[in-house]
Amino acid sequence: MSPSSVPTHGRTARPLSEKTWKDFEGLFARYHGVQAGCWCMFYHREGPTGPLGSRSRQDANRRDHRALLLRGHAHGILVYRDGRPAGWCQFGRREDLPRIERGRKYRSLAGTLDGPPAWRITCFFVDRPYRRTGIAQFALHAALGAIRRHGGGIVEAYPATHGRAVATWFGTVRMFEREGFRVVRPFGASNVLVRRNVRGVSGS
């Protein structure tokens, strides 16, 4: 899919950075850090770190995400609608998002995949007034552009196969198919593993 095939409709995309951190913080704070106060830290961690819903855990997740950002280990795309932060997509290098790989579902695929991915796309979130308006698709497209600028490689994701799946945070299969991903393996009862090779920008 070429950039021109994704309508903007007043939307812009910006990478997570020190300059956009306040926008990320504001979007997530409106929903108490999203998903029991996760602040999009779940897949950055190798294992459980305590009850996510507690206020202390929420505060720690927010601080830890910012600390990772400052060290260059947190990546994401913020989508703005008419200048207002409206959506989010998290992506990252394989080593920066280790939780997936350590899970039982992923370990069961050992030996059936053509090597490890370079990148993972793990999470989407859209502000309630902007849902079902194409924000997540726009964020995914922008995330792939950012990965291309970072050198590209095999990108892996885990979209849900139906709308009732708990992990709808992973996006939908159709979203990823529109961006050239192919289904590689089932991933539990409600998701599939998809991959695509993203060519890096020359000289990156």
Notes on the protein architecture:
The protein is α+β, with helices and mostly antiparallel strands and 204 residues long. The protein has a single domain (10-199), classed as Gcn5-related N-acetyltransferase (GNAT) (Aminopeptidase). The protein is built from six helices and seven strands; from the N terminus they run βααββααβαβαββ. It has helices at 21-29, 55-70, 99-102, 104-107, 135-149, 173-178; strands at residues 11-15, 75-81, 84-93, 119-126, 152-157, 182-186, 192-199. The protein has a seven-stranded mixed beta sheet, sandwiched between helices. The mean pLDDT is 90.
Write the layout of secondary structure elements.
Elements: E1 11-15, H1 21-29, H2 55-70, E2 75-81, E3 84-93, H3 99-102, H4 104-107, E4 119-126, H5 135-149, E5 152-157, H6 173-178, E6 182-186, E7 192-199
By DSSP (H or I, 4+ residues per run), the number of helices equals: 6
Number of domains: 1
CATH superfamily, by name, is: Gcn5-related N-acetyltransferase (GNAT)
Strand content: 15-25%
Shape call: globular
Number of strands: 7
Q: Mean pLDDT score, rounded?
A: 90
- Could you tell me the CATH topology label: Aminopeptidase
Q: Strands of the largest sheet, in order across it? A: 1-2-3-4-5-7-6
* CATH architecture classification: 3-Layer(aba) Sandwich
What's the oligomerization state? single chain
In this structure, how is the largest beta sheet organized? 7 strands, mixed
Amount of helix: 25-40%
The top-level CATH class is Alpha Beta
Question: What is the H/E string?
Answer: EHHEEHHEHEHEE
- Using the CA coordinates, give the radius of gyration: 16 Å
Structural class: alpha+beta
Q: Unreliable segments (pLDDT under 50, ≥5 consecutive)?
A: none
Termini Cα gap = 21 Å
